[in-house]
Amino acid sequence: MSVPRADTGNEDGPQHAPQEHTLNIGFLNPGQGSSAQVVVELTEEGPVALTMSTGRSPPLRPASPPTPRPCRHRGGLRKPAPTTVPAPDRNRLELQAVLLTAPGPSSARAAEGRGAGIGVRLGAEGVIPVPDPSRAPADPGAAVDERLLGELITEAQIVLPVDLPALANRCAAALGLNTALIYLVDLQQWLLVPLDESLQPLPVDASQAGWAYRTVSPRVTDDGDALVVWVPLVDGAERLGVLAVRTTTLDGTRMRRSRMLADLLAMVVTSKHAYSDWIAARPRTATMRLPAEILRAFLPPRTIGSKQCVSTAVLEPAYDVGGDAFDHAVVKHVLHTMILDGMGHDLASGLTTSVAMASARNARRSGADLPDLVGSVDRALAQWLPDHFCTGVVCRLDTDTGELHWINCGHPPPLLIRAMRVLDGALDSPPQPPIGLHLELAPDARQVHETTLEPGDRVLLYTNGVVDARDENGVEFGLDRFTDFIIRASAAEQRPPEALRLLIHAILDYQHNGPQDDATILLFEWHPQPPEGVLRSPPS
């Protein structure tokens, strides 16, 4: 069986060289029966290569979702040599194909019809039809009622949060899709919780929906009645959850519309979250204690970022945090980050860090430089909570130049990770009093330290609850284990938010009896974009 080729030119124009894109499709059998599951990965340019497996296969590993193999064969479907097929008890038949499309005049037609048969259920031959995209017939159902879609977008601004599931379905129908279901990740990022209260959550580490969340990439499965496109719900750099889009067929147009719908609903969910207790409470899996509720009211999103930098943080125990806190914000081309560890583990310690965060933001929004910002927090705590203090690190990164300035207030020093290793002592500094004690212990101005980052550098801030975590034998998690985990995640090309999610879960698992102290980690990465037209040199 051969795979048709796209046009390589037109009658009136010159011939164009074929252009190869990337698509991987896999069929996985998660159980012992004969059922199959479709897994699709699509690029922005549409589908071109596929990998299929039928028969019995081992169950999916939670932390290692299936990774289809890239295909280089240009002649159509290729069956591997018999020696590559495992024993019958784990029989897998793999077929591969690459579909070529041509740039130039025929590309526009190919973009509209590309992969019209991609994702349909297995036929008698056990093969997904892959028609010539440039010759695919127009789909009359692909037209969009712009008036209706505009009305739905307007309605999204005033819809009650509890009515979002119904609105999502109506938007999907207006885009030629079947249905759309919103899943939000819980506070600890273990589960994806549907807004539809009649459905059960899905595990982040052991589901195709979770794969889409972890990798921030779409995933397509076949549930027997329709295809389900799992699209990440992302607000800026913040992962909110996933959108499950059901569709009878899948092509480039429907994939783009699924992404557009996810982008729209991500903005709607974010705007409703600011005033909806229902949306705030829906992803919770436990009752939150009062100190944690107060503190979380002041916390920013877990992840913020731009093309030049990203900052992400995690905090545990999620529902019983005491005095730990983090903050990050972008002011023009400057990234501000801060981590705090309040004295104690009660309501007063939570109030201390909350006042510190509010004072720092007030100074930052008034244009204060780094010493004045920390000084304003010192004065606020001395005035309003004179018997309390907190340690912390406050940083300021110029994302244009990579210049990093920081003040360490009695806190563990930040760690600098460069080229997959920790630079020992790179961000160490002489000790300074904790925030709230500076005025009485050291009346002189705070000392500011500075260095220049290199592209790709990661800076790690943490509280002592991270390295002091102990197992059942009293052995500490330790700084070496902590940094080794981050370096391994970097080597595996994990995105910073996913690296911290895995790390904080590893710390929780290490403490079988639960955390003995608050544990907070903040990581920011500088990845400047080269000037337009300039290629960046590969890392050494």
Q: How far is the first residue's CA from the last residue's CA? A: 45 Å
Shape: globular
Q: Uncertain segments of ≥5 residues (pLDDT<50)?
A: 1-138
Mean pLDDT: 77
Q: In which order are the strands of the major sheet placed? A: 9-8-7-12-11-10
Q: How many helix segments?
A: 13
- What's the gyration radius in Å? 26 Å
Query: How many DSSP-defined strands?
Result: 23
Chain oligomer state: single chain
**Biggest pleated-sheet summary:** 6 strands, antiparallel
Which class of secondary structure composition applies to the elements?
Answer: alpha+beta
Strand content: 15-25%
Percent range for helical residues? 25-40%
InterPro entries: Bact_Sigma-Reg (IPR052016), DUF6295 (IPR046262), PPM-type-like_dom_sf (IPR036457), PPM-type_phosphatase-like_dom (IPR001932)
Region (Disordered): 1-38, 50-88
Biased composition (Pro residues): 59-69
Organism: Streptomyces albospinus
